[in-house]
Amino acid sequence: MNNQLALNGVHGLHWNQSANINIESLTLDSDVTQSTFSDDSEFKIVIARSTLQECGVSPNKAVCMTIKGDSMKPILPDGTIVGVNLDGKRIINNEIYAFWHYNVIRIKQLSWNNDNTINIHSFNSSRKDETAYLEDMEIIGQVFTWSVFRKN
Predict the structure, then answer these.
(1) pTM above threshold 0.85
(2) For a disulfide at 143, which of 60, 70, 89, 96, Cβ 3.0-4.6 Å?
(3) Residue 65's closest CA among 27, 38, 113, 19?
(4) Which residues contact 40 (CB under 8 A, 6 or more apart)?
(5) What's the pLDDT tens digit per position in 85-126?
(6) Of 2, 7, 4, the residue nearest 147 (C-alpha)
């Protein structure tokens, strides 16, 4: 039995639509601009099944996505591939999530504010935190891993 799982990227994920791991890649825009979908690249991340199990991620609920933009640098720079648990929809303070926000897919650190709004945090210190209502967002899933490749 193979103890590793190759996670395919997600392509063409639309509002209120379930993701399917047997499709190509989706480029996410970590900045608040129009999302960019790419048909020309295909990628896979190989993750040990035991690692998924340790993370509490079901193999059929794991997808990977590529970040575009600098709002999450230096932790998640442009080109970072993130693994997303599609079952991880409950917001835990200071965890990182993929979510729809006004028809844009975003990857950000989220936390609850005292007034039951959501704080949307970018790691890039030049970006200001934002606040949103949960009903204005749709959580795709929690980021459980990422891979950063050095660019020359």
Answers:
(1) no
(2) 96
(3) 27
(4) none
(5) 999 999 999 999 999 998 888 999 999 999 999 999 999 999
(6) 7
